[in-house]
Amino acid sequence: MDYCKNDITVEFENKILNDLLVNLRKFDLRTIETKPNMARARKRLVFGAIEIRKQLELGKVKALIVAKNLSTDQLMDDDFKFCISSAVNSKYITVIYALTRKHLGSALLNRRS
User: Fold this and answer.
1) Residue 99 · residue 65 · CB < 8 Å
2) pLDDT of 6-23, one tens digit each?
3) For the whole model, what pTM was predicted?
């Protein structure tokens, strides 16, 4: 915000996002184990450009986290272009450019991508 004067370091930002994604993934896995029907209806996390595009068209996206170090061929993908353009044009969707592909993969899937 323009009225905030707090300096946020990269390490602090990455730590917050990493913890947020790990907790959301944990909640999703717990919901899938206990109530599978409700888990399909209420997704908290969606991975991949095609799945994100579906959720954007349905209007269910609250925030979009994009890796900082995407390659040029990934940026040229039609689904990815649609996701970014519709998220930027919407005033209700927050786009966060943070973490790297390696950190996103380790936080969400417990493996490197």
Assistant:
1) yes
2) 566 777 777 888 888 888
3) 0.72
